[in-house]
Amino acid sequence: MSEYKRPTSEAEFESNFAQKKPLMNPTEAYFESSRCLYCYDAPCIQACPTGIDIPLFIKQIHTGNLTGSARTIFESNWLGNACGKICPTGVLCEGACVYNHQDVPPIQIGRLQNYATNHAMKKNINLFSPGEDNGRKVAIIGSGPAGIACACELRTMGYAVDIYEAKEKPTGLTLYGIAAYKITNEEVLDELEYLKNQLNLNFICNHPIQTEADIAKLEANYDAIFLGVGIGPTASLGMEGEDLPHVVGAVEFIEDVRMKHHEMTVPKKVVVIGGGNTAMDAASQSARLGAETVTLAYRRGKESMGAYGFEYKLAISAGVDSLFNAQPVSIHSNGVRFIKTQATNGKLEYISGSEFDVEADLVIKATGQAKHGSFLNKINNLNLDNKNRIIINDSFQCTNPKYFAGGDAVNGGAEVVNAAYDGKMAAIGIDKFINNTIVQ
Amino acid sequence: MPDLSINFAGIKSPNPFWLASAPPTNSGYQVMKAFDAGWGGAVWKTLGVPIINVSSRYGSVNYRDTRMAGFNNIELITDRPLVDNLKEIEEVKKYFPDHAVIASLMVETKEQWHQIIKDVENAGADGIELNFGCPHGMCERGMGSAVGQEPAVLKTIVEWVMEVAQIPVITKLTPNISHIVDPGLAAVQGGTDALSLINTIKSIVGIDLDTYAPYPVVDGKGTNGGYCGPAVKPIALEMLKNLAQHPDIKSTPISGIGGIETWRDVVEFILLGASSVQVCTAVMHYGFGIVREMQSGLEEFMREKGYNNIYDFLGKALPNVTEWKHLNLKHKVVAEIDKDKCVGCDLCYIACDDGAHQAIRIPTENGNRIPEIIEENCVGCNLCSLVCPVENCISMVQKDDGSKHLTWAEETDAGNIPTTFNDDRAGGKHHFVPTVQDALKHRK
Ligand SMILES: Cc1cc2nc3c(=O)[nH]c(=O)nc-3n(C[C@H](O)[C@H](O)[C@H](O)COP(=O)(O)OP(=O)(O)OC[C@H]3O[C@@H](n4cnc5c(N)ncnc54)[C@H](O)[C@@H]3O)c2cc1C
Ligand SMILES: Cc1cc2nc3c(=O)[nH]c(=O)nc-3n(C[C@H](O)[C@H](O)[C@H](O)COP(=O)(O)O)c2cc1C
Ligand code: SF4
Ligand code: SF4
Ligand code: SF4
What we know:
Bound molecules: flavin-adenine dinucleotide, flavin mononucleotide, iron/sulfur cluster
Oligomer: heterodimer
CATH architecture of the largest domain in chain A: 3-Layer(bba) Sandwich
Number of strands of chain B: 18
Distance between the termini of chain A: 67 Å
């Protein structure tokens, strides 16, 4: 049974989707920062994909140098504010904190990080400025964290950058995909505004790059192109009943939650199919929107789920029920038909005659996202691997040398912090590439 | 970008952050690593007469979960051969010609002083620091603090040094003395180019309750050590101020030492007149990397205040450090509690009731633990705001309108001083105190 009443106002929505990592107050920040041991070559730094100097920024918080702290963070990670709130810190920095070995709670690095960046954003403190114009132009396709990080880094080096975005608003899945209880729309857009004001980022929204002609135009007008297109909509399962009106993809469902808030309604009975983090997010959010029953159905056992343990626990604590070893067979107007499974030596087998039905007014498929293969194949000599991920070298350069790529489009779907790192590194790769071209 | 570079009595350094003469400057390896990490200068571990060290050597005061809030050592000067140190000084200067390498020295006779000065100058040192500070071991042999505590002897040695020194000379003072100005003045009269302080303070950090010996325990016995680390900063700041304000000393550059760990400490030392700072304990605790926090904080502070270089705010707090008799007796502050922030620990209440002026009450209705200030009883002592565990919860609010100014000195000059307590001009006369019997109302 779900724990939540259907939210009918923005205030009720905010209460159901209360932030998991709320902003610290000064006392909290003071005490928490005082606990950091300032480890040498700290394991938390090694566990952060963007390598933020964590003990340094924590000490800066403790000594009241919040501006310096924010600088330390943003210098390594352009999405430093969002990451503090949405990174799965338990498996990253906080998971590596040495306190874990003493059975003492690890330092709340994410929240401290957010405390410092929030200060800089709220006070609108300028930490960066565009580099001197070097006369070179770079096009960025996709304004997700990868695209934004690449753009910011390039701007500090003096490049002119245009960011083409298919959607109405920039920031990619940070705005449209992350669970609403991890970060608010406002906070995502505030960080964007903060960076935009300092670096004059030029976003061209509602402008998908689709055709060969679009591509040719970019190639003619820019010295390099960065692909930060992420991954696409929820993939098709090829299952009977999949096209019924009460079946939606998880990514699309979550986008609706993020955009509509309390104006979004869910029916009484929801079934979520999948065992990854996206499935957990979709289930949690269904429950918080007031669904009476939310059933999370996964075709293998609990131990095989791709989701992080803490995401699963969060869903369960929101009142989600779980169903393991249940493979969906077909979807009907009033529910989903499953067949029981068992794994023998890792191989999934169906138990014949074990079919059963679960009632559902809404079925959410969290079974993976399609890649942008058909679009990417329109670019000459751009090689993809067998999972349609863009192949890059150590400089984040694609097989077509004019192109660079990073983020979900390359790793197949990871975290915002990985995309932020990739974008920054790709910018450095682009700079090297363009400088070498000039020399030749 | 603010300019952090300094010219300290002729010693140039890219920034004011120096390592104090101590284990972190024991070898060329360490000094090179430190310069690479961002330190601007290093005072080499004191070179001098041959010594033998004991084991163990360090003790510490851990305050709650804070380790090494105070640190204590019974270590002597360097135990590495002079030639090795000289060779390494030369090598470091080759890699880092623009950084400051200062040789700390401690020997006995005039001839020894003259010889060792020549040696370190030949090695390429940028300056010399005379160690008149060690309060253990070396003083028993007539060196270190034994010199620093005898201004006349100190002056003579400084004169010997100045006879031959070609590079700037810093005299490092011991705090184990009642009037720091005496040795400070003696050093200036002896001709020193600069001063530094403090060296360590005589201390016993604790007793082992099983062996009945002081820490650090050396085979069942111990000795007094030298105390340093965050705990000693207030003492260092006060001594620094005494030198920096003295008319005959204030034009002599001073390097501030003692308990420096963060950028705030650095700024405080500069505000009280130190144009370079030296750090030992914080580096022994966290390594050379802490200089980044210091540098970032100092730069951010300078940007915020609009300072272009260190000299823009050097000594800026000195005019505001005055004698008690010049403080405004008409200034009145009263504690104010932010009820929304208060967590109801009632530490402020018990601190005030048992330890100060009975100016806080706790409401009697059940369950309400939020205390109230009794304004007419509050003397504005600050105690409650110091014990309150919540940031910015108790603030001290000014109650006078700032128009009146009256000091003890002015009252003395005007012959307006109360001589008995039964005088309306005396303080404390109308001070509220509960009755003696009220004490027993608290019995449970
Ligand atoms: C449901 C869900 C929950 C998640 N939760 C978390 C979380 O809690 N924490 C976390 O760190 N990460 C989370 N992630 C992952 C994270 O959102 C992604 O890893 C990250 O956003 C990837 O960044 P990106 O820039 O590579 O791609 P995206 O964020 O996907 O951005 C790509 C952008 O490119 C645009 N685009 C695509 N094609 C074109 C085109 N042809 N022309 C123009 N524009 C185009 C898209 O509209 C989009 O704006 C989650 C992901 C999902 C799906
Ligand atoms: C272990 C140890 C050894 C020291 N050795 C010397 C020394 O050889 N010469 C000297 O001038 N000061 C020596 N000092 C004193 C320091 O240089 C410095 O004056 C003192 O520690 C105060 O600074 P701090 O609070 O940053 O540690 C030593 C201090 C410590 C802790
Ligand atoms: S970016 Fe993410 S992983 Fe890195 S320190 Fe911040 S919260 Fe941790
Ligand atoms: S591992 Fe933990 S204690 Fe150590 S530096 Fe990182 S946050 Fe601080
Ligand atoms: S010490 Fe601070 S938090 Fe505690 S009761 Fe007093 S005002 Fe409240």
